[in-house]
Amino acid sequence: MHTDVIVVGAGPTGLMLAAELALAGVRVRVLERRESPTRESRALTLHPRSIEIMDLRGIAGRFLSRGRTVPGWHFAGLDTRLDFTALDTRHGYTLFLEQARTEEILEGRVRELGVEIARGREVTAVRQEPDAVVVETAPGEPLRAAYVVGCDGGRSLVRQAAGISFDGSDETLTGMLGDFAATDPDAVRAAEAHGVLAVPLEGGLTRFVVVDPERMRVPAAEPVTFEEFRQALTRIAGTDFGVADPRWLSRFGNATRLAGRYRQGRVLVAGDAAHVHFPAAGQGLNTGLQDAMNLGWKLAAQVKGWAPDGLLDSYDAERRPVGEAVAANTQVQTLLLELTLVPQYRRPVLALREMLDGLLGIEEVNRRLAASVSAIGTRYGDGSPAGSRVPDLALSVTGRPQVERLYPLLHGGRFVLIRTAGHADAGDASAWADRVEQVTASAWQAPPELDGADALLVRPDGHLAWAGRGDEALEALPRWAGAPGATIAEAVR
Ligand SMILES: Cc1cc2nc3c(=O)[nH]c(=O)nc-3n(C[C@H](O)[C@H](O)[C@H](O)COP(=O)(O)OP(=O)(O)OC[C@H]3O[C@@H](n4cnc5c(N)ncnc54)[C@H](O)[C@@H]3O)c2cc1C
């Protein structure tokens, strides 16, 4: 089989990306070194924008039916929660869903779209040639493709092979997690009262997460022992909550690094391969999914031959700042935690936390931070409406009474050009039909910042490409969707 894109790594980022590429008709292959899907879940949360992007593709229900929602989330473990219900979204909540389930659902989607996931196949080298990338694997013959995307986690071989730097700071602090099959019956409630994070998992397991002042300088590479974990709980809470029968013990750290660039020629990186940080406020997996959503349609455009100049490079320009911002906010959170554990800083930092708690009680402050952690506030570009996330607008589409909102129009992964009824005769976009869906809205409920526009061009990832007058829409299209009819399906560019 000819392959346009090789995705290295079948974690959440790689699976999401493979699905997006396949949806756009790209021939994609996923290579994964693990023989079978992982059963251990590092991440437990999907935040609002992640659910929204699943809604954009019509698969949000698959996730929602497997998890449970909570109305908000925390920042640095402060008492005042971030209120996601106040955000301008139909998905104002965090979904508790174990990473293994998220991956299982995404893998189902990838297979439905006809993509092969080659498990037990480790990528050992990546080499760029002028017109292709060669990927060596063990076992197996070398493979060639037009592009390779490293979704192969924090130690990414793909990133290293492409010579992309991974700048930042080394680990200075570690925490421990433990999944236990047996605990005291009221352990979760009791742990909360002691400020220890405890979460019920599937199959009757309970996860405990601790940062123990006596063990927080132990390197992440050092395995956790059951006895160490029990002692840490006892030191922190005065009880071990009856934990027994550990199923998974792991140590994680606050090394914080960002790829120097997200693209080097025919090689790109996404997810943890592009950014790592302390798992504060549960943002890593979510950020990776959103990297994939941003990259998928752009890389597809490049492979298909219709990408306008600079489109593929806009992946770096748009997503690197997001990675940088997430890394920064996790560092702030880590500091607010770590310094409470250092005796000489404890009092002033507790005072600082109390002050921040008070500030989070101010609606506008809370909403700002909630928008950032949930990624609902992610806006690309220079702050103009272009680049902003388009909410799921209520609208009525002429001739399609079943469509009552925007997102179902994006299920196929194409751009959507909406013009109001008065501008329906302002030119025909059907020459772009392979990548643009054009509809006429008899009514819509536009957000205030788009007031006055009577046409919108929404990108496949649900961000705004352009808003303006209906009779200018055909001029705006090539800037984003390329020349009409320019699909060169077999091109290896
Ligand atoms: C304790 C902890 C808790 C966390 N909690 C949350 C949370 O609640 N919410 C959240 O959003 N994030 C959380 N995270 C972060 C989240 O787990 C990661 O950000 C996420 O797994 C990244 O996904 P990924 O697909 O980019 O990389 P990974 O999940 O690391 O997947 C990479 C894949 O590539 C494969 N691979 C690697 N090298 C090769 C190779 N050479 N050849 C072939 N395959 C290869 C690996 O086997 C793996 O399957 C947490 C992290 C930790 C440590």
Automatic annotation (TrEMBL):
Coiled coil: none
Domain of life assignment: Bacteria
Cofactor(s) needed: FAD
Cited Pfam families: FAD_binding_3, Rng_hyd_C
GO MF, one annotated term: FAD binding
Segments forming domain FAD-binding: 3-329
Keyword Protein transport part of the UniProt annotation: no
Alphabetic keyword roster: FAD, Flavoprotein
Protein name (database record): 2-polyprenyl-6-methoxyphenol hydroxylase-like FAD-dependent oxidoreductase
Taxonomic path: Bacteria, Bacillati, Actinomycetota, Actinomycetes, Streptosporangiales
